[in-house]
C-alpha cells in the first residue's frame, strides 16, 4: 500500500491535478488584495436624490417580541416622507406576541404558521405572496429587508434613496453593531461585518461590480421579485446574490447608509448559527456554482445589439462579476484541507517512509516561518526510510501545518488592528485593553468557519433555529452614546 502511495506522489497526472487545484485557488484569490487596497481609499458616492420613491420595508420575525418594537420605532424616526413607507412584518411560526407588538407599532403584520417551512426565506416567500394578493408587488418601487433586531440611523432610508434614484437596482448598506463590546463573541462578529465593508463592498461598488448581500440591510427594485420570492434555502442571501449576478445585475453599496445589528453573545448560539451558515454556503455553491462558472465563459445577458465597445465592456463586467461571485461561494478552506491531507499527510508521508528525505520543520510560507528561518536557520530534519521514518514524517508534517496556521493566525490579528484604526469614527468607544484582546481573538472567527464548514460537509440536514435577540438598546441610545464620545 505504501509503495503504491509513494508511486502516486510522483505520478505526473496526479501531481498535475493537485498543482491545478492549488493554482485555481490562487487564481480565485488573486483579486482580494487589489479589492482591499481600493476599499482602503475609495467608496462610491451618490448624488442627492431628485425624487423620493415609495418603499415597502419587510421584516421576517420569529419570536422577536423583545426587539421588533425598537426597529419599527427607528423606522418612524426616519427623515423620509412617512407616506412613502409601509412596514410589513411576517410573524413566522411565532409562539410569543411578536405579531401583537408589530401591529401595535403600526406595521402590517401577517402570521405564517407552517412548521415545515421554518427558514427566513420561507417567511419572505409567504410575505411576498400576501403583498402580491393584497397590494400588488408593483405598488412599491423598492423593497427593504431587515432583521427584527436591526436599528436604522435617522437618515438611513434617505441615503439609500440616493442610490436607488441614481438607477441602482440592488443596494447594500453599512452594517454596524449595537452591542459591539458586550463580550468577545459579539466583538468578533462586529469586526467580521466591518471587514466585509472594507474588502468586499467598497471596492466592488466603486468598480460597478457586484458585492454580496449579507442577510439584512439591503434594498432592491420591485421588478426583481415581480414573480415573488423563491429563495428559501438556509442562506437565502447567497442564493439571491448568485441569481442576480447570473442575470447580469450589479449589486452596489452605500457607505453613508448606516444600520445597527445585534450580534450573538453566547458561544453555543454562535456555533449553531455559523454551522447553519456554513451548510447554507455549501448548498449555495452546489446550487449556483455551475451557473456562475458557465457565465464566466458564456454571457447570456449582455446585449450584442449595442455598439462593439459597449458590448465588450458589458460582457467583460458580467464575466468578472460571475467570476467574483463564484470566488466568494467556493469553499476554499474545505478544498485546501483535503488537498493537504491527500498531498502531504498521505502521499508525501508514504514517499518519505520509502525513500527518505529532508524536511524543514518550520517552513517558509508565512512571515513567522521566514522569521524563524532567518534567526535560527532552516532546522532541517532528515527522514530515514522505514516505519520509524513514516511516523516521524507524519508527525512533522502535522507540526508544520500547525506552525503554518499559527503564522496565519498572527498575520490575521493585523486585520483587526486595521479595522479598529480605519473605522474608528464609527466604532463605539471601547477601552484599549479590550481592543487589544479582541485583536488577538479575532482570527478565531475565521478558524471556526474553516472547521465548521468541514463538519457541515458531512451533516446531511441542518435545521434553521431561532437566534435569540434580547438587547434593549434603542437608536436614541446609540445616538446619545456616539455624541458623548465625539
Give your account of this protein's structure.
The termini are far apart. The protein has 17 helices and ten strands. The strands form two sheets. An eight-stranded mixed sheet has the order 3-2-1-4-7-6-8-5, sandwiched between helices. The longest helix is centred in the last third of the chain and has 36 residues, at 387-422. The chain has helices at 2-10, 12-28, 32-41, 68-76, 98-104, 120-134, 156-165, 184-206, 236-246, 267-297, 308-329, 332-355, 367-376, 387-422, 432-441, 443-458, 475-484, and strands spanning 55-61, 85-92, 108-112, 142-145, 151-152, 170-177, 218-221, 252-261, 357-360, 380-383. Helix 8 (184-206) crosses helix 14 (387-422) and helix 9 (236-246) packs antiparallel against helix 11. With 486 residues, it is of the alpha/beta class. Helix content is 56%, strand content 12%. The model has no long low-confidence stretch (mean pLDDT 91). Helix 5 (98-104) links the parallel strand 2 (85-92) and strand 3.
What value does the Rg take, in angstroms? 25 Å
Main sheet makeup: 8 strands, mixed
- The share of residues in extended strands comes to 5-15%
Spans of at least 5 consecutive residues whose pLDDT stays below 50 are none
Amino acid at each position: 500500500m505504501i509503495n503504491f502511495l509513494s508511486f502516486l506522489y510522483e505520478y505526473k497526472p496526479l501531481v498535475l491535478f493537485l498543482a491545478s487545484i492549488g493554482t485555481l485557488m490562487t487564481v480565485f484569490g488573486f483579486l482580494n488584495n487589489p479589492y482591499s487596497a481600493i476599499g482602503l481609499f475609495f467608496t462610491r458616492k451618490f448624488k442627492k436624490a431628485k425624487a423620493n420613491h415609495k418603499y415597502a420595508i419587510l421584516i421576517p420575525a420569529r419570536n422577536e417580541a423583545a426587539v421588533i418594537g425598537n426597529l419599527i420605532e427607528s423606522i418612524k424616526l426616519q427623515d423620509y416622507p412617512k407616506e412613502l413607507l409601509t412596514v410589513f412584518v411576517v410573524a413566522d411560526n411565532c409562539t410569543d406576541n411578536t405579531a401583537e407588538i408589530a401591529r401595535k407599532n403600526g406595521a402590517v403584520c401577517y402570521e405564517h404558521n407552517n412548521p415545515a417551512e421554518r427558514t427566513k426565506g420561507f417567511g419572505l416567500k409567504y410575505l411576498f405572496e400576501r403583498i402580491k394578493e393584497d397590494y400588488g408587488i408593483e405598488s412599491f418601487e423598492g423593497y427593504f429587508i431587515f432583521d427584527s433586531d436591526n436599528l436604522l440611523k435617522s437618515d438611513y432610508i434617505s441615503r439609500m434613496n440616493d442610490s436607488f434614484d441614481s438607477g441602482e437596482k440592488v443596494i447594500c448598506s453599512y452594517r454596524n453593531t449595537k452591542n459591539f463590546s458586550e463580550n468577545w463573541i459579539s466583538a468578533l462578529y462586529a469586526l467580521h461585518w466591518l471587514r466585509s465593508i472594507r474588502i468586499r463592498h467598497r471596492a466592488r461598488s466603486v468598480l460597478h461590480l457586484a458585492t454580496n448581500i449579507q442577510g439584512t440591510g439591503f434594498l432592491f427594485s420591485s421588478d426583481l421579485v415581480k414573480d415573488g420570492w423563491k429563495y428559501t434555502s438556509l442562506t437565502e442571501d447567497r442564493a439571491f446574490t448568485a441569481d442576480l449576478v447570473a442575470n447580469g445585475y450589479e449589486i452596489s453599496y452605500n457607505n453613508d447608509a448606516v444600520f445597527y445589528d445585534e450580534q450573538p453573545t453566547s458561544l453555543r448560539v454562535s456555533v449553531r448559527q455559523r454551522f447553519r451558515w456554513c451548510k447554507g454556503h455549501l448548498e449555495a455553491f452546489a446550487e449556483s456554482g455551475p451557473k456562475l462558472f458557465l457565465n464566466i465563459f458564456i454571457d447570456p445577458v449582455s446585449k450584442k445589439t449595442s455598439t462593439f465597445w459597449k458590448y465588450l465592456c458589458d460582457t467583460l463586467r458580467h464575466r468578472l462579476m460571475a467570476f467574483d461571485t463564484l470566488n466568494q461561494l467556493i469553499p476554499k478552506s474545505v478544498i485546501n484541507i483535503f488537498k493537504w491531507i491527500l498531498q502531504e499527510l498521505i502521499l508525501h508521508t508514504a514517499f518519505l517512509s520509502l525513500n527518505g528525505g529532508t524536511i524543514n520543520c518550520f517552513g517558509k510560507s508565512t512571515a513567522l516561518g521566514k522569521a524563524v528561518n532567518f534567526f535560527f536557520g532552516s532546522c532541517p530534519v532528515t527522514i530515514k526510510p522505514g516505519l520509524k521514518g513514516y511516523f516521524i514524517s507524519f508527525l512533522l508534517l502535522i507540526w508544520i501545518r500547525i506552525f503554518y496556521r499559527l503564522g496565519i493566525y498572527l498575520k490575521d490579528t493585523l486585520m483587526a488592528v486595521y479595522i479598529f484604526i480605519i473605522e474608528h469614527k464609527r466604532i463605539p468607544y471601547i477601552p484599549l485593553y479590550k481592543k487589544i484582546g479582541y485583536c488577538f481573538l479575532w482570527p478565531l472567527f475565521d478558524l471556526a468557519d474553516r472547521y465548521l464548514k468541514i463538519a457541515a460537509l458531512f451533516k446531511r440536514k441542518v435545521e434553521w433555529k431561532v437566534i435569540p435577540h434580547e438587547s434593549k438598546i434603542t437608536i436614541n441610545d446609540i445616538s446619545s452614546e456616539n455624541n458623548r464620545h465625539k
